[in-house]
């Protein structure tokens, strides 16, 4: 018996064990003051959750070089076509849910950015670094102040005074997930008094200086943050500065939102503008004064001139500033009382929103999302996502609406409409051959096995506890032939409908942080809501995501399914946990049991399936240790997947992929019954997705 699947998994697990255990640092050799820093967060009593503060922010942007590609950068449209120097200031109220999670609303906003637009939004996350966490900024940049990351850094300790120590740190490997810098540490407690971090991530070359709070919970949060650096993108170079001060004592009424009052900001500002910032304001004010004088003169001129002026302003302000901006950038805005609602619209056209695969060719994705929070425990969410596959000349969309009526129990009513998915099934062609006694090749050219699937789903989920969930509902399918002419010429129907109640149970023995076991049942009845087919199917699934330190993780999924009832004319086989993902959603989405290069006809051709999917990922694996290119690697992945089905005993897929600041790419090899089947490549732009 061929033991290829076992051997493949043995070597994958051996590699993971080697990376996880063999490379572990012996942190006991590190200085005692550094050990105290590693455990300082655990010594602090109290919770960050609920802490609130008034925050003053100042940010400036100077364009050193730019070209037309700057239009493709989110939020940079006004910079790409406007002036070269900008400044903005805001006074905000911030309520922390966690050190790097907070709600914030701007009360006073002034500056020279057109319509007070936010630019380079990713920089705001750097202003609340989570120094004692594994990662400094959200889920990236490995912190030198966490014990699990000590093996990635070289430390040098210099005593400053009897009470403080200066620690400098340098990354052992030049990589975008690591930083260099220094920190002043309190000897007695290990508290970080201040630190300077230098690094480069997502095209942001930065120097971040942070002064921390004095004691207690406040010592886990920044007191003053200063950041400066440059943003590089395809020849564009922009220099930025940010300054943020927390804990200010002036409280403004909650009714003040987005007030644009320069005089009020002069009173709220806790420090002084520097020379460059004053110059930017002065230049802007001079231009504004000159334009106001020109408008005053225009009002005194004859009406025809005034009409021409208004027409010119309409084209400039509407066509360029509004339509042009929305073509290439995302739109995000709030609505409703107290900004309870939010909507986000993706750019109408941006070349960076393409992905590529061998089977679908280039696919363009467009997204609209909206949500409305009725209460902290109840909200409404919806999304419209569409994609166009140029190789298949096919438009796809899915449109879910979720009403979460009890967030604590994940009690959610979900409606979803999707269309465009191709489903291949040779059973209909075999049935036609049998009925017509026609084995000629002409039937093969009529595309009688290719259908377009429109699906309507209505479900309700409820978590009985952290260990058990139950979901019930129904699913409706309308499958219509892609090429109807062949069916009409043969006198056969080209549309098929199914209506099926469904039930799902999920068991999580360790709650939400452990493995999950899922059982699915679905049963279609003939003549129920126009259903022409009768079937019954069962599926089981087990999944586990095991996260290790330093952003490493192992993802494993195993599952199977079978049709226990299938009437003679039940041509379509459609599994929940084993299907072709027709609208790609990115490399970090939840899995659906998808194979990267498996021929799509196998998804719907077997009465049963058994599959496994394994992925190991790490930011510091193979290419990360190579000179020159290693510094740009953000994440690397190894894939091994296996499938048993009617004609596959088994199908195996091996892959390697990596993500950098611009794109994700993966190469995959598939073997069918232990023989080479096909080679494939998956490509997706990652640039600006974290913004």
Could you walk me through the main structural features you see in this protein, from its secondary elements to its overall organization?
With 691 residues, this protein is of the alpha+beta class. The protein has 10 helices and 30 strands. It has helices spanning 4-22, 32-38, 40-43, 77-81, 123-126, 262-268, 275-300, 303-328, 427-436, 484-490; strands spanning 52-65, 85-98, 101-111, 135-137, 140-142, 153-159, 164-171, 180-186, 192-201, 204-212, 222-233, 236-245, 331-335, 341-345, 354-357, 361-375, 378-389, 394-406, 411-424, 450-463, 468-481, 495-507, 516-524, 535-547, 553-566, 608-618, 635-645, 648-659, 663-672, 675-685. Mean pLDDT is 84; it is low at 20-28, 304-312 and 586-592.
Tell me the strand order in the biggest sheet: 15-16-17-18-19-20-21-22-23-24-25-26-27-28-29-30
Distance between the termini: 51 Å
- Give the overall shape, derived from the CA principal axes: globular
**What fraction strand?**
35-45%
Features:
10-stranded antiparallel beta sheet; 30 strands; 10 helices; alpha+beta
Summarize the structure in short:
With 691 residues, the protein is of the alpha+beta class. The protein contains ten helices and 30 strands.
